[in-house]
Specification:
Elements lengths: L2 H13 L3 H21 L4 H20 L9 H19 L7 H7 L2 H25 L3 H10 L4 H8 L4 H26 L1
Helix pairs in contact: 1-2, 1-3, 2-3, 2-4, 3-4, 6-9, 7-9, 8-9
Length: about 190
C-alpha cells in the first residue's frame, strides 16, 4: 500500500473513530510533535496536551465530507501543533514574536525536515558516544554535558593536571568524531 493510500485509509479510520487508525496516527506522529515542544520550552505533558488538541482538529476535519488533506498527516499535525504551542507560549508570555510572523519565516515542511535531520544526527552522535567506551564517554559527558571545569575533571579522573585532562579530552573527541562520521557516511 503506497503512502497516500495508507494515509487516506488512516483518515477514513479516524473519521469512523477506528481505534487502530487512531493508535497508528499517535504512534507514527507524536514523537515529532513532542520533540518540537520539548525543544521550545515545553514539557512532556504539554506535548501530550497539544498533540491531543491537534488530533481533535484533524478528527473534526476528517468528519467533514468535503475535507481533503493536501499534505501528509504528520505535516498537518505538526503544523497545527506548532501553531497551538506558539499561541500557548504567547499567552504565557514565554514567546514574544507573533505566531503568524513565525509561520511566514519558516515553511512547516522545512522546519519538520530540519527537526528530523537534527534528531537523526543526535541519534547517530548518541550511538557514537555509546561505542566510544570508557573513560572517554564519561570524560566527554563531564566536559560537554555537565560543564565541569577541566581542573575538576582532572581530579575526578585521576589525571595529574588540567592540561593532561585536556589532552585526553581532545583524543577522545577525535575518536568520537571518527565514529560519528563513519556512521554519517553510511547513511549518506
Amino acid at each position: 500500500m503506497d503512502t497516500s493510500t495508507q494515509e487516506k485509509s488512516l483518515l477514513e479510520g479516524l473519521a469512523r473513530e477506528d481505534k487502530v487508525s487512531i493508535e497508528t496516527i499517535y504512534r507514527e506522529h507524536f514523537k515529532v510533535v513532542q520533540g518540537f515542544i520539548l525543544a521550545n520550552n515545553g514539557t512532556p505533558d504539554d506535548a501530550a496536551d497539544i498533540f491531543q488538541e491537534a488530533m481533535i482538529v484533524l478528527f473534526e476535519k476528517s468528519k467533514q465530507p468535503d475535507f481533503e488533506l493536501n499534505c501528509q498527516i504528520r505535516t498537518y499535525l505538526y503544523s497545527v501543533s506548532k501553531r497551538l504551542w506558539l499561541k500557548r507560549l504567547q499567552q504565557m508570555n514565554r514567546f514574544s514574536r507573533h505566531s503568524d510572523d513565525m509561520e511566514l519565516a519558516i515553511p512547516v515542511e522545512e522546519d519538520l525536515e530540519l527537526h528530523e535531520k537534527k534528531q537523526a544526527d543526535f541519534h547517530m552522535m548518541e550511538n557514537a558516544l555509546n561505542k566510544i567506551g570508557e573513560p572517554c564517554k564519561s570524560l566527554l559527558e563531564a566536559y560537554y554535558i555537565l560543564k565541569k571545569p577541566m581542573q575538576q575533571i582532572a581530579t575526578d579522573f585521576g589525571y595529574t593536571n588540567a592540561d593532561n585532562a585536556k589532552t585526553q579530552k581532545y583524543k577522545c573527541l577525535v575518536r568520537l568524531k571518527k565514529l560519528f562520521f563513519a556512521q554519517y557516511k553510511q547513511v549518506q
